[in-house]
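tl;dr need the bound structure. longer version: we got a ligand (iron/sulfur cluster) that a collaborator sent over and nobodys looked at where it sits. i said id run it. heres the input, straight from their email, havent touched it
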Amino acid sequence: MITLTNRSKPVNRKKMTFLESIYIWNTFIGMMITLKHFFKKKVTYQYPEQTRPYSPVFRGVQILNRDEEGRERCTACGLCAVACPAEAITMEAAERLPGEENLYREEKYAAKYEINMLRCIFCGFCEEACPKDAIYLSETHAPAAYNRKNFIYNKQDLLIPNPKTQPEEYAQAKGLREINKKKK
Ligand code: SF4
Ligand code: SF4
């Protein structure tokens, strides 16, 4: 008989002995295998209490960046949306009004900024395209949701905490990746 692999085994049809027919010996072997694995190092993680360390090149959910004074960096130029191969980014631009200089770094800002996480392939092209260091992919993955609408992340979902009013949250959101990037 011609086989594609040499892994096929002929079925053994020999008559069972009395000991085999009461399955005690086979059950005992099975229990020994279980016991052996019981004391071995566990390869599973008790998620969400435990999380697996990600690779240093992991790219997760996008963050809309602020400058050191807490102003939004995004100038709604649209380059990230043009670069996005999945057409996941939409935005609406607005003009900064007098007195809003402490909120927006540039004269134009994104009044609306959305990323559809069901489309995003986390390629990082938006980050590459941005001339203002306004968007980057963080070390956090997008959490699961029951509703498609919950995968449309708006500006408030994406915006990093203000470094002036929430310095701890800001540092946490920045994460190691951004710190390492600065060191290079
Ligand atoms: S990571 Fe890639 S797919 Fe996702 S929004 Fe950015 S450019 Fe689009
Ligand atoms: S995130 Fe960057 S590339 Fe995208 S609109 Fe804002 S400034 Fe432009």
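gonna send this back to them w/ a short note. The chain is about 25% helix and 15% strand.
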